[in-house]
Amino acid sequence: MTTPIRLEAGTPAPSFTLPNQHGTPVSLESFRGRPVILYTYPQAMTPGCTTESCDFRDARERLMEAGYELVGLSSDAPGKNADFDDAERLGFTLLSDEDHTVQTAYGAYGERNKYGRIAVGPIRSTFIINAHGILENALYNVRATGHVARILKLLELD
Question: Is the C or the N end of the chain the one with fewer CB within 10 Å?
Answer without folding.
Answer: N
